[in-house]
Write a structure and sequence with these properties.
Largest sheet: 17 strands, parallel
Helix content: under 10%
Distance between the termini: 34 Å
Shape: globular
Structural class: mainly beta
Mean pLDDT: 93
Radius of gyration: 19 Å
Number of strands: 28
């Protein structure tokens, strides 16, 4: 069901938002894995494959090893065009798990997947859950495809794109047909679904962001946050349910550069019920030339505005 159709049903009083929700849409299947793909059936064989990972390799994870309870973060350092994918195409079938978002004794698993200077990586058809910090950490890694994922219960960000003082971030990423959510709420306010610093030309489409909210009485971060000299972000056809904040392109007034620039926010749907607190659904700040087109934002009286520029 498209966002526009189920919005119409809700406004007619036919169904509640949760009853009407059928999002994200079914993800298109990726091409079959290559003949030389590495097939793994346990956490130990997955870690062994990571130890000898080379550019161009595909690792296929099978349900027999699920949940893959990690003993150390899956580090991808300086290798390009690698793929991690579940074997069935259904992210519920293959789960990669950490020690828990509220467990400070995370040992060698601060994040689940960490990409460092590794371009063209694909992560697809998997569930990742229960990390103290991030489920997926991107550092100076461009052209990443995140496809048909279920990302659940990150201690900080479900997807984090970090940078250093030179603001060389992760560019041209694609996040699509995926769900980012908390089972109930996050463990504190410093949480996001996706948070990218200095990222250019990202496309974020056909995703569901759900329950991005904190339990400590402070306002949670935006479910979708692109800032710190980011630019050109395309945010389209996403659904945000019961998040304290929705989309933020930019956040603060920078000196010497823009927090975000350009991009478009179009055809998204945001809903928050009246019993939950929060800020605006769509927010642009220090982000010139950003277009906001054809979105539906329902905050149920919990905010003085639905869309703001600051």
């Amino acid at each position: 069901m498209s966002p526009r159709i189920w919005v119409g049903l809700m406004l007619l009083g036919c169904v509640s938002p949760c009853d009407a929700l059928d999002w994200p849409p079914l993800a298109p299947a990726l091409p079959p894995p290559p003949e030389d793909a590495v097939h793994v059936y346990s956490e130990s064989t997955l870690q062994s494959a990571m130890n000898v990972l080379e550019s161009g390799q595909t690792i296929v994870l099978h349900p027999e090893g699920s949940p893959y309870q990690l003993t150390r973060t899956l580090w991808v350092n300086g290798v390009d065009d690698v793929t991690f994918r579940g074997s069935t195409g259904d992210p519920d079938d293959v789960v990669i798990a950490g020690p828990g978002m509220a467990n400070p004794s995370y040992g060698d698993v601060p994040h689940l997947v960490h990409l460092n200077q590794s371009d063209g990586v694909t992560i697809a058809d998997l569930t990742l859950r229960d990390a103290w910090y991030h489920l997926i950490q991107l550092h100076r890694s461009d052209d990443v495809l995140l496809h048909n994922l279920r990302l659940v219960d990150a201690g900080e960000q479900h997807i984090k794109g970090s940078t250093e003082s030179d603001r060389d971030g992760a560019d041209r990423g694609v996040l699509q047909y995926s769900t980012m959510e908390f089972t109930t709420v996050g463990r504190w306010w410093y949480i996001n679904g996706i948070d990218i610093h200095a990222g250019a030309d990202w496309v974020i489409r056909f995703n569901l962001f759900r329950n991005i909210r904190s339990d400590d009485g402070n306002l949670a971060g935006p479910a979708l946050h692109m800032w710190n000299e980011s630019s050109g972000t395309v945010v389209e056809s996403n659904v945000f349910l019961n998040c304290e904040r929705g989309i933020a392109l930019g956040l603060v007034d920078r000196t010497g550069y823009n927090d975000h620039e350009g991009g478009v926010i179009r055809n998204n749907f945001f809903y928050r019920s009246s019993v939950q607190s929060g800020d605006v659904g769509i927010h642009v700040a220090d982000s010139p030339s950003t277009r906001i087109i054809n979105n539906t934002v329902i905050v149920s009286g919990t905010s003085s505005a639905a869309i703001e520029y600051r």
